[in-house]
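Model the whole thing, not chain by chain.
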Amino acid sequence: MNVGDALLEVRNVTKTFNKVVRALDNVSIEVRRNEMVSVVGENGAGKSTLMKILVGVYKPDSGKMYYMGREVPFPENPLDALRRGISIVYQEKGVIPHLKVYQFLFLGLEDRFTRLGRLQLEKIIGLARSVFEELGIKCDLASSMYELPLSTQKMVEIARAILNIKLMVGEGSNITPIIILDEPTAPLSLEERDELFSYLTSLKKSNSFIFVSHIIPEVITFSDRIYVLRDGKLTAHHDVRSEKVFEEELFKEIVGRASYHELWARYESVKVRDIDKKPTVLSVRNLTKRGYYTNISFDLHEGECVGLFGPAGCGKSEIARSLYGDIVADYGEVIVDGKKLKLRGEPHTRVRMGIGYFSGETGKELLLFWPIRKNLSLVNFDKVTKSSLKIVSVISFKAEKSLAERIMNKLRIKAPSVEAECYSLSGGNKQKVSVGKWIERAPRILILEDPTIGIDVGAREDIYDALLEMKKNGISMILVSDDPKEYALLCDKIIYIKEGTSQAVYTNEEFRKVMGL
Amino acid sequence: MAQAWISREWFQRNLNTIIPISGLVILIISLRIANPYFLTSWDSAITLIYGMAWFMVAACGLTLVILMGSFDFSVPSVLKLSAMIFAVLYPMLGLYSILLSLAVGLLFGFINGTLLARFNIPSFMVTLATSMVAEGAAQVISGGYTRIITDPAFRAISTTMILGLPSIFYWAILVWILCIFVTFVTPFGRTIYAIGGNIVGTRLAGINVKKARTLVFMLCSLLASFAGILYASQIQGAHMQVGVLDMIPLFASVVVGGTALTGGVGGVHRTLLGVIIIRWLDSGLSMLAIDLNVRMIIFGAIAIVMAILTIDRRRIKIMK
Amino acid sequence: MKSDWERVRMGSPVITSLWRLVKSNPAVWAIFGLIVIFSAIVPEKFLSSSNLVAILKNFAVTSMLAVGPTFVILLGSIDVSYMGIWMLGGALVWLLYPYLGLASILIYPIFGILVGLFNGMVHVKAKIPSFILTLAVTAVFAFLTTYIRNVSGVLTLTVPAYNFLRESPIPYLPSPFLLALPVIVAALFLMFFTKLGTYLCAIGSNEEGAKLAGINVEKYKIMAFTVSGLLTGLGSIAIFVHLGCQTRVDFDPSELVRGLAAIVLGGTPLAGGMGGPHRTLLGALVYVLIFNGLFLLPGVDPNHLKLYIGALLMGAVIVASRALRGVLIA
């Protein structure tokens, strides 16, 4: 490949964190003029690290960068990247909800429109209008960002990125802006996605895009070339314009296919025959939350694991969180043991009914500055207290310690002692502490949301072992995740959710067949 | 190992403990130098206890709220209102007026906690509003007049001598020990720390956060109310100036003890030290004829400095 | 109905902008309602020219306490140091008058800026919760003011030389109001015609996003506190004149609540991100009208003022709390 036709190229980029974790290993990609390049991979494959290197948030350990054929140093900071025509639109957190559209569009650029200390609002609004006309965005400039539909918010963000580059480089120069889109479609509905993509296609005339995603169909449909990253390495490269790329093939390249037989064997080893005949512990009827999901119904039997599968933003995580009472559904029924739960119930009422909730977001779940011991007993007060005084229950530190030691041994948590503060642990061990408290509590239903997000393989296996053992002991589970492997490993029944409605119900075998596992 | 002990890290970790203890030592030495008669007689010790005990009761309650990461601005006002109710109603109801007074305290705590937990209003705003209401109510009840009760039974609540010490001393120690017990070894106490540490995680762990927060505010106001009763009994009545100048010293004594404003760090056990330091400093400074206003300025400055020193910056992402 | 409105709005841009103002500011309805109610119950008292002048004066005082801190509230933080700036600033003017002459009134804004800078630096760098910090600052300053009065052996800290400021050149417009006008204009200018207003809203709305957009968040937070201090310092001149060229020498929490109540009643949410001084001005008017009208009614005891203020603040924050749903707050 000739270096000359690439607009931007990075070669042999390697980045290591803490001298151990190799996030990127010898990765080379290039972006040409007026094309959309996709970078796909699982969580933790190194996509966002690569993007952060491109916009100057991180510095790579080694590697070279070429811009229009000339070698250039890697950008020092986002502003530096902007001067070279590279800008990023973040997955979330980029939008500032309470600003007016024109305020948001020119955020950070006000100095160019200030005369004698006074902001020239007419000029800003006029320019905003012409920018929107040029880029084909239709919305009221005076409305607040949060009032706009999500797809329009994304478009405004993209317009902002282009405008930033143009103003930074200078209007006259014929630079082609490179816009990095980090999972732009995650929160969008299907129609909104189509709208966004047709919009991006129209912008391709004068810009290049790097599209970071893990949603396969849209990647194949809309990009010109695809790079696949797995565990920090570049594993495949496709040119969609010259070859036909199939979803299954791409999927296998993304997840790798090493251990599927083993997965299947492990699933089979704890599988219970005729699980449908077991008593129902939870039934959900027509559960609806406006704007997120509609008419979700399913039954959960004893010892069964139901997976809610679908693209990010399809409403699966909201369903799980409504079942736990973290957010409130609008209507519908949730029945546990024949008792109807109040939709408005807080999480503690759910725990009383025997429902537990565990997510991979340890920062949200754990008390990071508490020792392991206290974190584990937070949901297990009844196990570590003795109510010797009848009225007040008193925590027994001895019982607490032995409980913590038991769980630490069982889950192989690596820590100096039960008194080690959680923030000092590695990500995997944190997650183990987080799941450990529910193992001891042994609720009858456990809701899992991304249980192994962003942790290393060893810790992941330990957590799977623990979950499978719980399942064997008759604990029912509801799984929400981004990783199909997890569904194949844990679930007896998989409900495919798209845009908030359930589309199909698969058994484990069918699911594996559909996903090509 | 000995070197590791006095390392910089050890010093930083235990800053919350080192400062109050060294502060107390410095305080005692300097008061001794400034006034050779300082604390030489049993009587002066008892005077000090009278100055500290009721204060300690209120400070324990405030500590619980601060541990939770909230703030209760209404403590001195509830204290005043309770003292006033007790004194005004005593001639009619006798000692039963204590119950009424405590009930009013609980009610204020309930309002604070409910507005905070159910309506999600920042605690300082809520308690500022309720403190105004309590002040107003005290004005309405008393008509703005000072009430003096000479009945010995009224006085006996806090001044009965047991083993050479007034009963108010035992009340304060009792409250202190109970609070320590609750915060250290009961699930409820664990919950208070958990809310201060990570309220979102605590809620997800299936703990009734709303109830716990309301209960803590009720406990705080109950203790403030009890402090008011003890104080009224001690000074034989109540007047509109009760509690007016207490907010800053109260706050100062909690943070001087080493309880961080961000919540989750510190404890009621530390507050004893804080109260001793602040009240001792107060009486020492007033012995040196230092103006009341200057004392308040000193306490305010101490409070700010200690708040800066005790906050655990590792755990803050965004500070509002 | 709606189409009628549309047509009217199409016809006149003035009506359009007025309609927007009314629609986005419920305080306008409250002002309208209060005026109607009090004019109906006690017309001869409420609508007398002396009472209307009193309303204007009180409006000037209340709004001068509240417009500055509004900039900090946009961040989602809070600044209650206005009491301290007002009280101690006046004491400093009194102290320095013998040396500086008439120029000593300039101490007010300078002192305001310094206090604001201090608050901002400590809040941002040492990460102290802003409410506690500024409250402690106010308390320290208030006691210092009382101390200065006590030491100097006078009853009030009055500077009679400024009495010429008390006479208004325009009939029916009291001089505190005229002195407040430039501060109001400055606040509105800062909010709508400089990037400061936008940046503060951005930080209050989504701090991480603001950082990603390249805004120096720490700098603008400090700047918000400084602007708050400056505006309060300037505004305190109006209050100083209103009180007869003297400052307050004893701390009264109900004065502290006054500023907060005006902000909350105006509809600037405590969570930050939206609102601004224009809303605070409306809120100040609501506050003034309520208490002005209330004490004109028969059977209302001014001694119970605190009770009413507390109840009003409680009601106001409950109404304003709708904006905070879904967030767990300390």
